[in-house]
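Hi R.,

Here's the chain you asked about this morning:
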Amino acid sequence: MPVRAVVAFTRGASVIEFAVSNLEIDLKEFEKTAICALVIWYTKRNKQICRLSFHRIVLGPAYNSLERLGGKLVDSFEHLVVVDLTSRFSGAFASRLFGDYGATVILVESESGHPLRHEPPFLDAEPGMDRSLVSAFAHWNKKSFCASDKDPIESLIVRADVLVTTTTDSKELNWFQNLLPPDAVHLSITAHGLSSPLAQVPGNNLTTSARCGWASINGYGSEAPLSMPRNQCGIVGGVTGFIAASAALRRRDATSTAELIDVSELDAFALSVHPWGVAGAYNGHQPRVGSHRARARGSPGPLWVMSDGRMNFGLADFKNWTQAMDAVNLPELGRQTNLIPDIGRHSQDLRAVVHGLADTLPRLSRWDVFHQLTKLRCVVGVVQDMRDLVDNEQIVAREFINQSEVDGRSVRTSGPPARSSPSRWQLRRPAPCLGSSALAELPTKRRTSRADTGLSKVEAERGPLAKVRVLSFGQAWSGTFATELLALLGADVVQVASHYHPDAFRRISNVVPAMVADQRRPQHPRNTQGHYNSVNLHKREITLDVRSERGREILWQLIPKFEVLVDNFRPGVLPTWGVSLEKLNEIRPGMIWASISGYGESGPYRDYPANGATTEPMSGFSSIFGYQGDSGMNTGGLYPDPISGYFLVAGILAALAHRDKTGLPQRVDLSMMEAVSATLGDYIMEFSASNRTPKPSGNRHSLHVPHGMFPTKDEYWVAIAIESDPMWNSLVTVIDDSMLANEIYRGVQGRREHEEEIEQRISLWTQSRAAGEIEATLSRAGVCAARVVPLVELYTDPPQHFIDSGFISKIPHPEAGNTWLPGRPWKFSYANQVPINPAPCVGQHSKEVFAEELGIDESTYEEWVKEGLTGTMEEV
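And here is the predicted structure, written out as tokens:
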């Protein structure tokens, strides 16, 4: 029925906003998007009321529905002024995220423009100040202001709520701090952090990949280690900065001076790969490059060749094994009794399966197999390139792809890393042309009124998220990592666990790892796994059997005590327990429910199983990662998990800001596939603008030459990158090679034309020296250089700079003992950070939490333990 509507947005019993539609809309279509509002529907012709309806839940693309109605939506950071004085991708991305959630972001540039404006690829391969696709990706939702002297910069800083910088110059930093208002936040993101011994050492995506362990596990064992693709460390550093700054804004009224946040790209990126290193240290693995790169080129898997592409198969976790093997034409293996149970299949000999798949899969279609196996609950994924991705049925159904502009031309790009409503992520405007905003057009004053988070100074010292309470159903990595980040920011996080279905990271092995085994103390395998203990720091844990009616009753008594609910179950699991945003809001007004799943809570893939190994290829990431000239590969880790964790926390912080303004409940829905695709916006732009599919570039860079990994005398590798002509001159001076001193190499174009020759000469030099010596010598000379550190070494014998900065420290665990673990990737000037607590043992805090929250006594707790409702490993 065509109707118009009056929409009253309510907070409790009060109307807080009112809008009248100027558009004729369809009642049924609007109700699909259910908005938190009282809607009075009336007919176009006689304005007679035809229906009253009250909506509480926002689903799917609902956050746009009120704009279609002509109403005004509140954005999380709409009254913030963010001043971007950055020169690195990480800082640019952090400020862009504020713009994505509604802030006014002012990009301050010199006449030569932000460095990203000069980074390829360019529109039509033609350089221009407004034609870089990397810049277009990093700078949308901003205004550009050109400043030739300090005066206009000062006038912007004094009106900033958030200042984002990437300089390590102490004089500049002091100047900024002295100008900022006392309730402002100064976010500094640098390669290694301002307080690190490496603070003045240059670093980039290549050297960070080398230092944090990623390069040591990426690629083939007989070939050079692989850096992560362009700007990935900047994306992780940027979202980490956004998280820290968003959290700091919640305690801005408790500060007497502007708070300085020191974020290290290296530390943030190390948290995207560390569980495998910690687990290796627990198990006594030898710290050597190549220990995770044992696969030889040409061996089958983990990306399998199909008739029309490639796929990833999580064989050890396949459900319905017999039917699955029938689907891939291996019926006899499907009836092999030792392989049918998925529990224990990890320890079985799967060589016959591997050889069989290598024979049958090249005759099968990737999408036919994908749909057959996912419907059997088998974890598989298709390698999608950018052409596949933009037309993928799940991506299309969820309207993930956005439109933007580059130099006036419309291009497609990535959408939200996490969907949130009624708070919202939005691409509002394309990246600005250089200097397109005059000073008079920019905000002239700050908004001083804001929601009160109720933090006292004492509470604020515990962390900016003190008083935020989180109930977590996180499991494995993505969900647990997200809630660990919240805990490290001061939130009280309580993990809900089960004896009947233990966390996958707790049951990775059924023995206590060799290097933490200690007969002097009680130990259990579920409490001593490095994977689990590395991503659950600073939390409390309870056990609760929610299979039983009594267990669910206890859960529903517990939920209202918390304001954030986090899970990474399949969509539909929590709703079977009765969880909905409407019900959560009834029992705790303003509740935030945040979820991670493989493909999100809507769309045709909604119920398909997924994990990091399958969403990496599904997202398009595997198509652009790998050696130059190859068709792509998976990383040596599970990159989608930490990326999803980071972006979920970003969405939660934006939702908290929106909730504080409006009182409305919030839903955050993160698809792992979309979260990773959201890091590839510039690649999607590249395909959209040229109709050419981006391919892997190995360790080389589109602008900087040389840029690669080189073998050393002591059988390690060293990353070396030249980002400027002066840096090149420094390298030539150190190497003292007459051939490299030739004039033809002094400019980047000359170096590009002779890239292979240059790499060969550098390789000859590095093979005559030890990796540590090369790193130290080149770093002193101002050259980007880093030894490729074996991932396990970081947590058996950490580099001194990590220890000195405090990022890696020994954290005592009641059963695993004193082990090296990474901590916070940020430092706040407001107060010293509290010591980090170890990951909890199974159900360790059950008695404590139930007594505090539900008021039960000792005898009631003992009854619950006897009934099997809760308890620790010892009690059960």
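One quick note: The radius of gyration is 27 Å.

Cheers,
M.
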